[in-house]
Amino acid sequence: MASEFTRFCALSDLPLGGKKPGKVEGKIVLVVHTKDARLFAVSGMCSHQAKPILAGKVRNCTITCPTHGARFNLETGEPLDLPATSPIETYEVRVVDDWVEVSTSPRAE
User: Fold this and answer.
1) Distances (CA, A) of 96 to 55, 66, 79, 102
2) How far is residue 36's CA from residue 15's CA, in Å, rounded to a whole number?
3) pTM summary value
């Protein structure tokens, strides 16, 4: 089944090393543009206690929850540290006509 996508932001609004929160189908999503020009879209909420990870530090394809320090793989959503034991949702992301688009549904686990 093909994914449906929605426009998220202009690519120019998301510089290398930047991140941008927004809503997709009512869920908070964080799009990350890594310094090596890769784009990822993940849930904006930590799976540990549903705390926002929007201000989390991004490094080496991971994001760290600023509340309790759990790190997540941006590509798979898998937790890399306790206290998180469940993954965060990830979304397909693409660029079309200089717009960042995010799938309207999270990737299947």
Assistant:
1) 27, 32, 30, 11
2) 11
3) 0.93
Per-residue pLDDT of the chain (109 residues; tens, 9 = 90+): 567 999 999 999 999 999 999 999 999 999 999 999 999 999 999 999 989 999 999 999 999 999 999 999 999 999 999 999 999 999 999 999 999 999 999 997 6
Q: Which domain holds residue 87?
A: 5-103
Look up the CATH number of the domain holding residue 86.
Answer: 2.102.10.10
Q: How many domains does the chain have?
A: 1
Contact 109, 8 (CB under 8 A): no
Query: Cα angle vertex 23, ends 17, 5, to 5°?
Result: 85
Residue 17, number of CB atoms within 10 A of its CB: 12
Residue 109 maps to a domain? no
Distance set, CA 20 to CA 12, 55, 66, 82 (Å) = 12, 10, 16, 25
